[in-house]
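HUMAN: Forgive my ignorance: could you write out one protein's sequence and backbone structure tokens?

ASSISTANT:
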Amino acid sequence: MPGRVWERALEVAADQHGFVTFEDVRGLGADPALLRQWHQRGKVERVGHGIYRFPHVPATPLDPYMLASLWPAGRGVLSHDTALELHELCDINPAKIHITLPTDYWPRRKGGDRYIVHHEQLANADVTWHEGIRIVTPAVAIRQAVATRVPTQLVRQAINNARRLGLVRGLVLDDLARPLKVGA
């Protein structure tokens, strides 16, 4: 019979696309070893180092993105090409999920080969949420696209869509477009 910790962990998992970490359970005031016990009993699935999934929560197409953000001890922020795609700014289709980590954090966990890892100190204003997953803002995604030399036609499309949708102030977009000589 599930107890209070199970119910609270399930609530956390529901907010995180079914995923829960050792840190999440520790934050509930419980021993993270409970996750291992639940896994041994077949109640949760182990999907990565310290990351488990409650099968009670229906899977969605966003699950891989949530897992990417949790993989580096919850410090990952979806960024670069992935952010352009999720913000629906351009027709980019990245082969791997791009995540940005703090410059002082270098994970040693297995599984990083599934991601393209970038390091940057992001300010709070540089980060927003997409369906409960941390992601850089559209302006930062475009800045990152310019810096990593995403093809100009895709950057132009991203700038035009951000302008049309009102996601980024016009002056900011003008500044982002200037180095590329991309017309608005």
